[in-house]
Amino acid sequence: MVRIDIISVLPELIESPFNASIIKRAIEKKIIEVHFHNLKDYASNKRKQVDDYQFGGGSGMVMMIEPINKCIDLLKTKRSYKEIIYMTPDGNMLTQKIANKLSIEGNLIVLCGHYKGVDQRVRDELITMEISIGDYVLSGGELPAAVLCDSIIRLIPGVLGDETSALSDSFQDDMLAPPVYTRPANFENLEVPKILLSGNKAKIEEWREEKALERTKKMRPDIFN
DSSP labels for 195-215? Predict the structure, then answer.
């Protein structure tokens, strides 16, 4: 069973996405374990302080190395982890290939950034992978961590009802997914392409490949090879 441990200053910001839908069912089926750790529980003083002013001056508080190191060290005494991931806007952009890789690698620790970021020594000595979900800044790393976990968990065998569903997602083969349709076949004179109603599986797959190619060229020429 894959286990994900999420370290956060405000774990209540991230817990709700794991209490519904596909991820909730995966947890209930014991396909995946997700645990939340409040960084303040690892603070060394009574005020539960996990941030401090930065050396050299400047605006914004910085997450301290001591409570982060204490939490990670404790987790590592109980099991091995393949990656210790820091969610940060200046990390490597999350892609489907990264999600695929992480879904088969084993236990993960995810550290949610906050304030002005973390003491650089955390990034230099404790973190093995840094991930961003876009070139913008949020109030904290909790929402990006939820996005990362969702992208990973849905790929684990047994999570989705249809095992082949994730294989046809956009970006799995460096292409966008083709258009999809459902009933009714004719809605106010807007008709579903006839090929999809033909029952000819070979022709349908050929049409889907063509449309995926067209869509990728038009909408995402940057990923088209």
Answer: GGGS--HHHHHHHHHHHHHHH
- Could you tell me which residues come within 8 angstroms of residue 127 by beta carbon, excluding any fewer than 6 positions away? 84, 85, 86, 111
How far, CA to CA in Å, does 97 sit from each of 2, 102, 111, 175, 211?
18, 9, 21, 12, 22
Predicted confidence (pLDDT) per residue in 59-105, tens digit:
999 999 999 999 999 999 999 999 999 999 999 999 999 999 999 99
Q: In this structure, what DSSP letter does residue 54 have?
A: P
3-state class percentages of the chain: helix first, strand second, coil last, to nearest 5: 40, 20, 40
The token pair at 127 is: 């973190």
Tell me, yes or no, whether 55 and 102 share the same domain: yes
Last residue of a domain, one of 153, 187, 203: 153
Average pLDDT over residues 105-121: 95
Q: How do strand 83-93 and strand 108-112 relate by DSSP bridges? A: parallel
